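Quick illustration, no need to memorize.
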Amino acid sequence: MARNRPDSSGFCLLPPSASVILPMATRSKSSQRWLKEHFSDPYVKKAQAEGLRSRAAYKLEELVERDRLLKPGMVVVDLGAAPGGWSQWVRQSMGDSGRVVALDILEMPSLAGVDFIHGDFREDEVLAQLEAMLNGHAVDLVLSDMAPNMSGVDAVDLPRAMHLAELAMEFADRHLRPGGAFLIKLFQGVGFDDYVRALRKRYTRVVIRKPAASRKRSTEVYALAQGRLPASAG
């Protein structure tokens, strides 16, 4: 059998029918460490045992209960909702009352009692769907646990994360009722202080929280902004 020869780039050319299974050793040490940590994580195990879609639900649970964010009958919008852990927890906590609308550019399996819009919340068509679902009702709480796909390079990851955070703040500016609340995941680093200052111009109370379910080494924190002012100062 003829051997596969490297092409000009130095990579080995394989026939289309060939398949390659990479050994565990080829995985980076960081990815192996993450997998090991993930599957031994007590919050992951708890979420699996309780039928929740993600461990992130326990971050939200602590944040909501500490500041008593949820009340019966509220209208809640969850940005970047997939896989649905936050929306699932909110719906279970509010029972049959209120409205939960989840938005994401990724597909998300349906959840009982949660309205899901598949698309980019910056697009007019998606916003039109949201407004039709709300049927004139103002939004009481905007949630955002969005994060970009992390590369591990802060100079790349932080600007991407901050861009998503700015989009979420703009969404809250347009759709959140006066007096409403906005809860968002942020990453500490370049742009963080400016973002928090911008929130303080828009809301009467802004606090920074790091729930117990957040991994210690992560720079993620959650900004809770309450009491939206009638007009955003921007």
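Strands lie at 75-79, 99-104, 114-118, 139-144, 176-187, 203-209, 220-228.
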